[in-house]
Amino acid sequence: MIRFERVTYTYPFQTCPAVSDISFSVRPGELVLCTGASGCGKSTLMRLANGLCPHYFQGTLEGRVLIGGEPTDARPINTIAREVGTLFQDPEQQFFALNVEDELAFAHEWQGVSPEAIAAKIDEAARAFRLGPILSSSIHELSEGQKQKVGLASILSQGPRALILDEPSANLDPEATEDLACKLAELKARGMAILVVDHRLYWLEGIADRVLVMREGRIAERGGFDMLYDDALRGRCGLRAARVDDPRRTLPDCAEELLEPGEGGLAVSGLRFAYSGKPALFDGVDVSIPAGVTALIGDNGTGKTTLARLLTGLNAAQEGRFAIAGQPVPASKLLSRVGIVLQNADHQLHMKTVRQELEVSLSLAGGGADDVPGLLSLFALEGLAERHPQSLSGGEKQRLVIACAFAKRPDVLILDEPTSGLDGRNMRRIADALDLLAGRGACVLVITHDLELMGLSCARALRLPLS
Predict the structure, then answer these.
(1) How far is residue 142 from each of residues 137, 306, 357, measured CA to CA in Å?
(2) Per the similarity annotation, which family is this (predicted)?
(3) Distance between CA atoms of 445 and 405, rounded to whole angstroms?
């Protein structure tokens, strides 16, 4: 269904190819996993497979990419899109409607499908992905994991012959990830060709038929999933673990801990909050988060990001009393005392260069430009100091935003999925940075579904929903 024949591709105004001499195929009823360190060429390979390169990104294509036996550069991209569905890492970028039901209907309406048939397709998609409770919800109210489910449901309702998924597990809780794995296995059994580009590996054990490991724009290793058990290979290529234990079973629950007077950490009592017209997410709950690294965990949609926004003052609680290190803090002052790293790094990058972003953050903490090289080194951003932040890859942006938060030396730092989309090497860098902050006595709350990060850094867990 998807076939690459000696493909080399170079972006416009670049002299070095993004990928070189790529040959592989994805046959009907087969799932191929493509992985590798950040910047190795995975995203370009995905864009070649769905026709975005060279139709949208232009550039120079050597060799052939074939979909159903036809070269992609000889076909209009709209015809390719009917055969190859793509779910991008940020599904919101491919939504056209304001609520879930309208999004599921949009493509069918555009194609002139009858209202009765559209209603049937919406019902089928809602049942397949358990979307019934959120059909009337605004797209912007959804968690990242819920958005991903809506995006995948919308794509599959069009009946593509092949499916490409970009970091599909990055924002899903472990149970939703398991559901996705079952869904992909079902699609394979129906004869769909599936290409998954992902840093997280363990969830595709037993499902991936073949694995491509990319390095510096080339396929460095290829074989079955079992080759990923080789520690040396994973270390050489910057990969994550192929098997992961679930630390949620053993992490102590910080909801059962009470902060002692004067003890470092963040506490809130009597917290009440509900979105307009919705049931209360938090109804008079008490939360105590001690110093150290705490994982904030729970199913998609249980209010993890909302709680983070309440604890920083980005959302106003209807009721609640806040304290840091035992000292009361007005809700209006929380944002000056609590650092936050949002899930979408673009929302926190505003300067013209990486260096300027770090210098501004350092100045807020009383530091100076002399500290910039150390931060660049700690977060593997050397060589990027003069780059515009919006020119960075997703993983590089994520590390920059975390570096900026780190530079401010906050007493409390909240991070929303900080390792989403990061390879093994950079995930471990973030884990080391969190440990360093905790060693300074900071309270670090990490919203995460990343079992590897939990196992490396988190000393306890705060589980949602709270009683």
Answers:
(1) 7, 11, 30
(2) Belongs to the ABC transporter superfamily.
(3) 13
